[in-house]
Amino acid sequence: MNTKIQRALISVYDKAGVADFAKALAQMGVEIISSGGTARAIEAAGVKVRQVQEWTGFPEMLGHRVVTLHPKVHGAILALRDDPAHQADIEKYGLEPVDLVCVSLYPFEQVIAGEGCTLAEAVEMIDIGGPCLVRAAAKNHKFVTVVTDPSQYEAVLEEMRANDGAVSAELRAALARAAFALTAHYDSLISRYLCEVAGEDFPQRVSFSYTKVADLRYGENPHQRAAFYVGTDAAEPCVGRAELLGGRAISYNNYFDANAALELVKDFQAPAVAIIKHANPAGCAVDDDLVAAYRKAYFGDVNAAMGGIIAVNRPVTAELARAITETYRRWGKQRGAGGFYAEIIIAPGFEDAAVEVIRAREGWGGDVRLLAVGELTGRRNAEKALKYVVGGMLVQDRDLLGLNEDDWKVVTKRQPSQRELADLRFAWIVAKHTKSNAIVLAKDQTLLGAGAGQMSRVNSARLAAQIARAYGGGDEVDTAGCVLASDAFFPFPDSLDWAVDVGATAVIEPGGSKKDDAVIARADELGLAMIFTGARHFNH
After folding, report:
1. Is the pTM of this model over 0.90?
2. 414 forms bridges with which residues in the sheet?
3. In this structure, is residue 540 part of a structural domain?
4. 139 is a catalytic site residue
């Protein structure tokens, strides 16, 4: 059933386009009711406006806090036009039915995102009348059209022009769904903010609201549908707020891997490059020279680097772009590796010349996704890490623990050298971003090999050693003198034998095993230096 629009109530904080919208409605014979700044904006466009206080017979009060909270307003919106009892009340109380409600809410989200926002300022931006109007109109969408965003104006006007001033039931229902999603999002923001201010990190009820920015071709697998949503926290450069500088559309798995790559390089202060494959580091290196860092990261595992995600914590220069696009020509095709290409390059930004170099790369340069996230300021979002399980959600703090060196303790007779200590710091960060059970081998602040996601920690150690020997050797890297990092304690000393076998001279691990004394004793027997960090980094 189409419902003709004869009377509209308009009350918006965001005035963009509202005067033109009201003018178009008025030209189709719609009576406009409004107040405050919205009324002034509409009147300035030459449109006649009926003031809310004139309509209700009750003045605005409490500094504009109470304007539309009135039975005549909500009765006019909620009345069912096909219900005799409602029709009787319309006659009895002199209600004038409203057919369209146009509201935009106070910008609570934008205000709390600003630096220095006080609780009083935030509370003042909690809209009361607006959500009440929106919910009332959305509830009665059988008869009422609810408009909550300027992007919806034209669709409403197009239907009215095509249908003698009427809006279809299909569009009214779609707008109602959008309206309830908006109020749910708004209330979620308020609830979370007030809990954060009060220091209530895990309240009895919690809701998280996200906004869709893209439909994806499919999810992890082609038979799964998927979309990408972004959250409200915007303080931190992240994949969710990245600018796509061309290339193919980003897939579900691309987003996940790009996030893993960016989070790894964020944890380094010095220039760093990481290559991620299936959410695990295939290569990673720190070097003042970005090209050198990329070269060392590439040699971490040249097979896995093919089709990987490259992350850099500095802007991509033309020189680095040339190194990436000329990988094989510069360093050769190593040990049977397939054709090299990159799926994504993610960085704070890209020099114009760097983009030109990448796009000119024959074969894959036009397809690679370039993601610019903005300067890495070190600021982090105050958001929770979520993991879905069937029927529930696991909620925890993000693992933002970096190098907690104040808690580190050398537990062996031999102290690590300064070179070993630098490598241990590097390896500990990489291990944090490697799936458990994680074993990382590193030398000269370069990842030599990682054992990730294995059911047995000793198998992770074997895998890390195998990768280091197979892809990190030759003329590029000698594994002798490397260090080993483990994301959790060693339950038995046997992994240390594998460490020594591959050339490790120092180890870093959390400690805390019942077998710590045996592990330390074995490390001393092998001449290793070993640090207990007092913290672990499980990453499932």
Report:
1. no
2. none
3. no
4. yes
